[in-house]
Amino acid sequence: MMTYLKNKISSMGYLKFPVLILLLMLLLNSCASISGPDIPSKKILFIGNSYTDFNKGLDYQLLKFAPNSDAMRISPGGYTLQNHWEDANTLEAIRSGEWDMVVLQEQSQTPINGYKIFAEYAQKLDTEIKAAGAETILFMTWQRPDSVQYGVTTQALSNNYTYLGQQLGVKVAPVGLAFANALRERPDLLLYSEDGHPTLHGTYLATAVFYGVIYDRSPVGIRYTSDLTDEDALFLQTIAAQTLGK
After folding, report:
1. Complete DSSP assignment for 106-158
2. Would you tell me how many other CB atoms lie within 10 Å of the CB of residue 22?
3. Percent of the residues in the chain that have a pLDDT greater than 90, as a whole number
4. Number of neighbouring beta carbons within 10 Å of residue 55
5. Going by fewer Cβ within 10 Å, which terminus of the chain is more open, N or C?
6. Which CATH entry fits the domain spanning 41-244: 3.90.950.10, 3.40.50.1110, 2.170.120.30, 1.10.10.10?
7. Tens digits of residue pLDDT in 52-86
8. In angstroms, what CA-CA distances link 222 with 48, 61, 183, 186, 242?
9. Any residues with CB less than 8 A from the CB of 72 and at least 6 apart, and which?
């Protein structure tokens, strides 16, 4: 029944069918939380900058989705992957061997205007991550309103992150694609500020995407809403699931 309703919402348009939305929400609320004991425990390290750090951090938000996991972030403002490579604290954290997965978030423009640098330091960090027994996930960021003129678009970011992910043999969390998909259906939704930093809605959507990638399951049905309305939280969960094909 849940799958049927999700498909109906997807095919007919989210906002046009409030009765279906209400039925789905009632069905989800009648079920046990999807973040129950069947969710495997994971240890995740997020490496990035303010895009990772905003709204209490992706590590904090992910633990609300999956409370039985552990997560931490290293996210100084403005940091690039090169900065992280040159930072002893980042390398020490990676080499500790405490993590199942390490997420790499590059500065938002570098994958386009400095691809060689992006690829070089992502590869160096990936080598360290794999040597420590963990799995690398690349964090595909989103199109910045102030950077479209420089070619920092959703499609360009998707192309470069996808290509590098294939070269390194690692997963890519398509957060940027999820942002574009959400705004296509709800252009009124504020996912980021003028300089690209995520709003709470944006961080929530990013977290839903990471949940789907890390735990290999749909985030639809997560009860945690991060102070968003139930309607907005369900919409963002659904967009994340659709973007990941879950």
Report:
1. --SSHHHHTHHHHHHHHHHHHHHHHHTT-EEEEE-----TTTGGGT--HHHHH
2. 12
3. 81
4. 18
5. N
6. 3.40.50.1110
7. 999 999 999 999 999 999 999 999 999 999 999 99
8. 25, 12, 21, 21, 15
9. 44, 45, 46, 59, 93
